[in-house]
Amino acid sequence: MFRWIAITLSLLILGTASAGYLYYQHLNSNIRSSGRSGGESGVKKAAPNALGETPLNILLIGSDSRNSAENVKLGGSRNTVGDKPRADVQMLLHISADRKNASLVSIPRDTILEIPQCKDAKTGELFPATNNKPINESLQRGGPGCTLTTWEKLTGVYINHWVMIDFAGVVAMADAIGGVDVCVKTGVWDRPTRMVPGGSGLKLPRGTSTVKGEDALKWLRTRHAFGNDQNRARAQHMYMNSMLRTLKQQNVWSDAGRLMNLAETATKSLQVSDEIGTVKKLYDLSMQLKNVPINRITMTTIPTAEWSQDRDRLVPIEKSADTMWQMLRDDVAFDKNGKPKAKASASATPAGPAAAAPKTLGISVVNGTGVGQAPRDGRGAEVAQILNGKGFTLAKASRTAEPRKDTVVQYAQEDGGQGKSDASSVAKALGLPTTAVKADAEAGGLTLVVGADWRDGAVYKAPKAVEAGDLPDGADELNAADEGKCMDVYSVYRWDGDKS
Asked: Both 226 and 362 in a single domain?
């Protein structure tokens, strides 16, 4: 998606000529934006690596809005006109700190998750937290910013931006691109049946077809013929991978008319978070994905199971999902196609000045165990006592909470090598790995955040280290370079291609 945006927004090369400037301003006026976040997740930006690089996370949202004549015409229930839209497609795109790989995770729309308290940026309406609603309703409870906050709360991953598109936008984008190849193992016709009403109307013969416009939207919306929401996500990933391959092969730079059409379509089709609400900022963002090789882009869906209270709803398989979130937090590639990284020794002594004496270090211990469940009461005070017993007599429990998945020791970025050495001595005393030591531009001193991975016990037990490509069963990974994938079709919806 973002490679395509990069191409469409390349009109910046028009320079400062008056016509170019006026058209640039026109494109800016097309862009709609609103606040990045709809609530407080407690998740902070990742610390830069040794080269000063940080990963980039963008939430992609597909809205089911029917609040325009065009969107109503394109499908869905007409009795929802006027309702707040839901986020029926949600994907988190992670671009690695070194910009050498990209990973994408989808969550099926009917997955039951905790949706935190959110505030609608436009109306000021406050929505209480809930833990028994599907994730697609997060959009109705504070807009795209609430969907972003929900993802941060779930994953412990800081999300830099969101981008949203509706039905009409998908059709316009597909037309502007010129079509995308998709494949089915048998002919498919996603139509109403005696047992199941509705359907997208998708009708394709066996093999590969090029879809654009409304047919592209039908492909992306098809659920019954592909079996379930998880397989619909797989079909969406196939479409996106094919689109990326198509754009890589196209040469639009020499076609000024097409280039202008692409730019016009992109800026009209997308809604974005405020901090990327200009052509220049969208262009800069899209260029972050420009050099990621196709075979280093991996698309996945979190493993899910039926919800015990309603078999038509899903819940994440927690252990599997947590492995994927850990990979994103630790910036571990979803694919095995990169060069192996050198492994850091867990007992390595950090370079730099010697750590200060434990009894001189003031440490604020924050209870961050409240992720996915209620916080463990008094956990901050417990760990502060553990530190006291190890000679860190100035360690005290904080009154604030900062929910996060993993336990970290943060030091003020401005304290440099000394801060890192001091934080490392705290980590070593508790048995934390060196990767738990993080620089933080906002930290006022040493802060230990006890995460959801250490709710009990006096000794930290590190989770199993994850390796590149070490995805759990059920992640249904697809590599963008793989052109040989076709969708299975549920038997009721198979079509032989001859019948009308």
From this structure: no
